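Batch job 17 of 40 flagged for manual review because the log was empty.
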Amino acid sequence: MLSYTLRRLAFAVPTVLIISLIVFLMLDMAPGDPTGSLPLTIPLEVREQIRQSLGLGEPVFVRYFKWLQMTVITEPLHILAGLTGWDIAPGGPRILSWQTRSPVGDILVQRVPQTLWVVGLGYLFGILIALPIGVISAYRQYSWFDQVGTFVSMVGFSVPTFFTGIVFILLFSVTLGWFPSMYDTTHVVRDWNSFLFQAKQIAMPVAVLALYNASQISRFMRASMLDNLNQDYVRTARSKGMGEQTVVLVHVLRNSMIPVVTVIAIGIPTVFTGAIITEQIFRVNGLGDALIRAIYVSDWPMVQTITFIFAILIVLFNLIADVLYGILDPRIRYD
């Protein structure tokens, strides 16, 4: 297992580098200019000086390697220095947002907590809801619980989150007045009352994301459980006198988790990059909102950095999923 993990890590590095190069070149060729939002009265020579100050006068591959060095080394060290107070931040240029002229790393640090609060809790609750529903639906196939779970899952997965979010706002905020319709990013939890307000304002976006995630994962869980419940090893375990609870929750559930782990692992990177549509609806000042705003104004340094982080997370969690296969199923061996 260790040698397999090291081989995958060695293969993951060039994969991430190739992805970063493709993303950089595609966005570099896209229309958009850092001086596009400036007033038209600014002379052309001043605009050119601004472009040169941002490093846009250099060859494309020189700019790529500088951006890669700042993304992998400079920005992480600045972020770590800001969080710990250690004097490890290197000098030199940083990745600047064309829109705000601020370092991209500082902007991401400000927005990560909002994304983890909302999207992270939505994904966690979705998993906690989906797994037992999928197991019970498969074990009690065609029962009323299975019928209701299948219907809710199909609706939750088929209906887009922007529609569900609007319905939640109209029902629970406008009609019933239970929850605020917009997320207050400036709110700080200091006492019990402020904590209750925080819980109220994240309730609807978390519920929207939990419904969508639970609908998807529960269907995979149900299908995988049904496939394993009909296997020979289940009949053998039952014929040996094993309890039904042991057969289902130990043997069947462990093997059924293998494809579900893939779905969960692939979805985890979205926790860090944000739910773009849901954050826009509820005005959550997270990474998804930062990405969509950067795309609107052609802020390519911001888009490049967030996309690169997303690529790293996808490769990383795919590796983690492959390693978990061997833990969940002893029959799987990589060495």
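Reviewer: the log was empty due to a logging misconfiguration, but the result itself is present. The radius of gyration is 24 Å. Unflagging and moving on to job 18.
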